[in-house]
Specification:
four-stranded mixed β-sheet; alpha+beta; seven-stranded antiparallel β-sheet; 3 domains; 9 helices
């Protein structure tokens, strides 16, 4: 009887140590569908999700497609699906980066959906059992899109489901670990089985890909085969995912109130992107975006980070359409520099020297030296103007696009709070 009483007391204290006097209601162990949907909406706003939890078959399809075309995906909520039917010409090139190792710690369901949205549903049970997940990654470089797609995917029937294209993929190796240090709360302890004691669960490997020890063997042209698993993808939106279009459409009229709808054409042989004031990529050229007054937007050339800032005041009618004209520099930069340094500077030195000599000469000789000095200095000024104005002069303008209706109407004048604009 004594042993039975002790066992009963121990069992009761064990329940107290686990922190609950009542059992959860039926069905409360799994998160509700609305809660999961809310978490997935937050996750879907991220445009650089980790893909370590993609199934092996999906990763194989993904790697095969990156070798021959631009990868188009449907990204909504906690799912990202490759759209094979959308065939987009293009290619990716490998760029080796400084070897980087990182660990993503996950302690609860909210962190799971925020940090690993694509694998959250399948890992919830594992997280509940182990109390902790961690993803250790080693990245050796990126596969980067070499050119923007020439097609407008929104007009292609085979691409109707596409929401994003993959512009870059970080590759390397990873390990998904479960368990580790866990702190169990409570207030009672019975011998070695204390509810308030800190325990440590053994850390185990759930899955892994590649070998981080081989990543330093990657070269400028390709990652090591054991360090080439997709780790993270960077996406460029094509259209809003289903369920988010309503919010976007309600915000658009507010944006149009003082904004101009500008089409940014592609410059031949160059890759440009439009950035906001905070440095976030808005779109890759060619694209069309509403640009508000004093937006702080800028265009940046990817090859050398040359920037062209969009002026705070464009002079276009708010709500109208326009086509961008932008120049990172004008003229021939190389010949401008050669002319300035090879001809302009010597002419400036010669003109100054001739002027000094002329000042020291008699009156009858002054006119010759002054004339020669003026000629030299004029040449110097001309080359300086060419070099300064036309060699390193970023320029942007938004040329209005007139519709057939606007062309048929007469001149119009619009008075704004701090500007005057119109069509004539």
């Amino acid at each position: 009887m004594r042993s039975a009483s002790v066992a009963a007391v121990g069992f009761g204290l064990g329940l107290m140590g686990c922190g609950g006097a009542t059992l959860p209601e039926s069905g409360s162990l799994a998160p509700s569908a609305p809660a999961e949907q809310a978490k997935c909406k937050v996750a879907a706003s991220q445009e650089s999700p980790l893909v370590t939890e993609w199934p092996a078959s999906e990763k194989a399809r993904f790697e095969a497609l990156t070798a021959k075309q631009v990868v188009a995906v449907e990204y909504s909520g906690c799912e990202m699906k490759i759209v094979d039917s959308c065939q987009v010409a293009g290619s990716y090139g490998f760029k080796q980066t400084t070897l980087a190792t990182d660990t993503v710690e996950i302690a609860n369901s909210d962190e799971l959906f925020a940090k690993l949205p694509l694998g959250a549903a399948s890992l919830e049970g594992q997280l509940a059992r182990s109390g902790r997940l961690a993803v250790k990654t080693t990245v050796a470089g990126q596969l980067q899109l070499l050119e923007s797609p020439a097609l407008d995917l929104t007009k292609q029937p085979s691409c109707a489901r596409v929401t994003h294209i993959v512009r870059a993929i970080s590759v390397g190796s990873f390990r998904l670990l479960a368990g580790g240090a866990v702190s169990a709360g409570g207030g009672a302890s019975v011998g070695p089985v204390g509810g308030g004691a800190a325990s440590r669960r053994e850390e185990s490997t759930v899955r892994e890909a590649g070998d981080p020890a081989r990543c330093p063997e990657s070269t400028d042209s390709a990652p090591h085969p054991q360090c080439a698993s997709p780790i993270q993808v960077f996406l460029t939106p094509v259209r809003e995912p289903a369920g988010q279009a309503t919010a976007a459409s309600t915000a658009e009229p507010v944006e149009r109130a003082d904004a101009v709808n500008i089409t940014f054409p592609e410059r031949e042989g160059e890759l440009w992107a439009l950035y906001d004031e905070g440095g976030k990529v808005l779109c890759e050229v060619p694209c069309t975006r509403w640009v508000p007054r004093a937006s702080g937007y800028k265009l940046r050339r990817q090859s050398d980070a040359k920037e062209v800032e969009i002026p705070d005041r464009l002079g276009n009618v708010p709500g109208s359409n326009a086509r961008a004209k932008y120049y990172p520099e004008r003229g021939a930069p190389l010949w401008g520099a050669i002319t300035f340094y090879g001809l302009g500077l010597p002419a400036a030195i010669g003109g100054t020297t001739t002027l000094i000599i002329g000042l020291a000469k008699d009156d009858e000789d002054k006119s010759f030296y002054f004339g020669a000095s003026a000629l030299y200095l004029s040449i110097a000024a001309g080359t300086a103007a060419w070099y300064w104005l036309f060699t390193d002069w970023a320029h942007f303008e938004a040329e209005p696009i007139k519709s057939a209706r606007s062309r048929s109407r007469g001149p119009e004048l619009f008075l704004g709070p701090a500007s005057v604009s119109g069509t004539f």
